[in-house]
Structures are given as C-alpha cells and as structure tokens.
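G., before I forget:
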Amino acid sequence: MILTPPVIAREVLRLLHAAHEAKAAGTPLDLHASLVAALLGMFFSFIAGLAALRWLSSWLENGRWYLFGIYCLLASIAVFALHLRGY
Amino acid sequence: MSLLKVLILAIVQGLAELLPVSSSAHVVVAEKLLGLDPTTPEMTLILVMLHTGTMFAVIVYFWNQWKRSYFATADAFKRFAIRAIWATLLTAIIGYPIIELIEKTAFKGLPKADIEQLFGRLDLVAAALFAAGLLILWAGTRQRDAEAEATTPTIAPSRALATTSPSGKLAGWERFRAFACHFAASRAPERRSPPVCSPARTASEPSASASLWR
C-alpha cells in the first residue's frame, strides 16, 4: 500500500516518456486510451478481486495447499513450453 | 487494447491474487496469449493498476476487521504503522539493489534498460513459478511436520511483516495466519493485524482465521 503510489508514478512517468519519444519518432501513442485502459483495469480487477474473495475464501479454508505447489510446477512447464513455441 | 482484453486480464488478476500463486506471472502469460507485449509502458501500467484494484478489494473485504485491529486504539495504530514502515523499508532495501543488479548485469550493454523488460521473458517466469512451486511443497511438508508435533508456533513480529504465505508456513504458522500475512506483507501492509500475525496467540485463543474467512 505504501509503495503503490510511487510504483504507479514510476509507470505513469515511463508511459509519458515513451509517449514523448513515440511522438518525436512520428508514431504517437494514444496516451488517453492507455490511461483509460489502466483505470478500467483497476476497476475490473477490484470487482473481480471482491468476487473471488467471497467465492474462494471458504474453499481456501479447506483447501490442500500442496496442490498449489503442484499447480505452480505444472504451470511452469506450460509457460516454458509457451516460451519454446516463441511466445 | 480492447475492453474485453482488459476484462480478461482483470479476471485473471482477481483470481490469481488470492491464491498462493504468482498473479503477476499469470497476468503476464495472459497478456502474451492475448498478443500483447507485457514490456511496453502501457502494459506495465495496466499490470500495476490491476494489482492496485485487487489491493483495494482486499482492503474493502477486510476493512471491518482491520478497523477493529488497527484503529481501535492509538497504541494499536502506532504498532501497525511502525511495522508497516519497517516492511516497506525492508522491501525497498532488499528489492532496490536487486533491481539495480539485474539492470546492470542482465541488460549490460543495452543503452536503455528497465526491469520491466523482464516481463517479456517467459523462460524467467517459468523458472520463478517452478521455484514458487517447490517452496510451497516444501512449506506444506514442514507444516505437516509442525502439526504432527502439535506445538504452538511463535514468530517475531518483524518476520511476520516480511513473509509471504509459503515462507510463513515454513516458519510454522497455521495456514490462514500465513495467508493473511502474505496479503499483508506483499500487497498492503495495513492488512496485517495483531490478531492475525501476533506471535502471542495460544492454542486456547480463538483462531483469527475463523473470522478472517467469513
């Protein structure tokens, strides 16, 4: 929470800098669309997070956490396969 | 970027944030599958804002409990504030040199390099997920051992702030105390509350997790 505002500021500055460079290169970025997309993303993830909290909390309470370890191992293999396929 | 893609990324973030898996990794992979470039400033801003959204969701969800825990008395708030500041400082002290190190070694020779460029490396994401999986499995084994010994765990408050859920389990915590502290330390330091993370809770006290997961 404390680090969030500086991190957001860093990313906004990075975006502004990229927009400035893109404009100089003759390929301007749609800054407005990027900022709107970011704000919409925050709103949607807020809703999704709240829904997931209500939905998953009871399941997590009875869940077996080692399954998440297995999931991470399998996910890492899948992600590495995606990497090999050029993603 | 279309509204649908933003919505998909938000759902991925919302679900993955609550599980002991890397939400950033899941969002980055989803971006790749959607044909987006996670290293661009637009996408890294969206990634940060997605995390901010779920952070607010957690704050709203746990607000009543935290209000009782953190703002009940001036002393409780002071304790919380000190620990939150320590958690933030420790994160910065550990994280910032790592960022500098990566930018000066992995990106050596590149005229302009940001740590965000690593988001495009799925091989690194895969390695990080693998390491997280091993850590969770190891933590689960340790937890079972700890439960078998039926001992009451104790832990220093400073460690409570610095932990995530697998490391919390390695430290011998019960599942939801570790999970709550994972939230508190890695997403919003305010979320960590003395009833959840306090080292002093004994077996005779009611479990914080019972009220935490209502």
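Confidence is low (pLDDT under 50) at residues 153-165, 167-178, 184-214 of chain B. The first helix of chain B runs from residue 3 to 18.

More on Monday.
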